[in-house]
Amino acid sequence: MRLLDLFGRSPGSESRPLASYETLILRSRRALSPLFAGEHDTPLSGEGLEFLEIDDYAPGDDVRRINWRASARAAHPVVNRFAARRRLEVWLVYLAGGGMLAGEPVSKHQIASTLLVALSDTAHRMGDAPRVLLYRKEAESLLADTSRHAPRRLYEALSTLPLEGHRAPIQEMVEWLQNRLRRRSLILLVGDFFEPMDLSPLARHHELLCLQIRTPEEIDPSASGLYRDPASRRESRLTLDPLRRQRYKKALQNLDGENRARLESLGIPLGRFRTDEDPFPALAALLGARR
Fold first, then answer.
1. 207: three-class secondary structure by DSSP
2. Any bridge partners for residue 188, and if so which?
3. Cis amide bond preceding 105, omega within 30
């Protein structure tokens, strides 16, 4: 057994109820509404700009488009001209394996559900109708509701989604999407990312954001604890000596470092979330950086 497999198990491993839908939406809108103020592009907009040329500044041009370096060379103001690209399709993808049940008193699944419903509500308020993939190997669920009730229906689906005994391999999810995406898309990927991941097949044609969720015990394991394997449902109490704890932390550091380097090389932003922290400040920061 690989060292990291010990902590792919989940203490308790029983699904706990989510916060009420109304509470979740209220918290989401309070935290994210400032991102929609003003006339700037909204952070989940699937509409991008494609550079065309540098041209002389004309009265009425947006001063934010002035290319100051080129203006200095030309000795007069010049601006960047852009053309609107085709609107992107928005996808919310959840790697819904059994390990997402880990976490006390708040599980990774609860944080993931909060983020997914908040993102769905945000996208719908901005005029997008995101597709939602709840990915579990051989039990995928694709939600493509375009109505204003879609965030609530997603909430209901997540509240009853079976996770125990399921796996959600990242590379198989990548292949699943590759075989189905026909348009350039914005993909928001939610999971714990406890395995090496290569998103380059998707990054060549699509834009991606990754939202990683971990428990405090997964980041820095305690000396002992009760862990339950989501696949076998067997419980075992593990006692970790200082050397084994150090080996685990080193293995996790190496895994995360390799994944982070791959994401950075592909220009994919990574947001980190913990089950013992309010997810909305980190979500607002991640979306705000995309504006």
1. strand
2. 92, 209
3. yes
Cα–Cα dist 255/196, whole Å? 7
220: DSSP letter:
S
- Where do the domains of the chain lie? 3-37+88-289, 49-84
The mean per-residue pLDDT over the stretch 90-107 comes to 92
End-to-end CA distance of the chain: 43
CA-closest candidate to residue 213, choices 92, 99, 119, 43: 99
Residue 50, pLDDT score: 57
| Torsions phi, psi for 135 (to 5 deg) | -90, 115
CA distance 266 to 259: 11
Does domain 3-37+88-289 bear CATH number 2.115.10? no
* pLDDT tens track for 208-225: 999 999 999 889 887 666
Judge residue 76's burial from the number of C-beta atoms within 10 Å of its C-beta, 0-12 exposed, 13-18 middle, 19 or more buried: exposed
Q: State the residue for tokens 């970790």.
A: 240
283-288 contacts at long range (C-beta below 8 A, 24 or more positions apart):
283/31, 283/32, 283/115, 283/118, 283/119, 283/211, 284/31, 284/32, 284/34, 284/35, 286/209, 286/211, 287/32, 287/35, 287/43, 287/44, 287/122, 288/35, 288/43
- Please tell me the pTM assigned to this model: 0.80
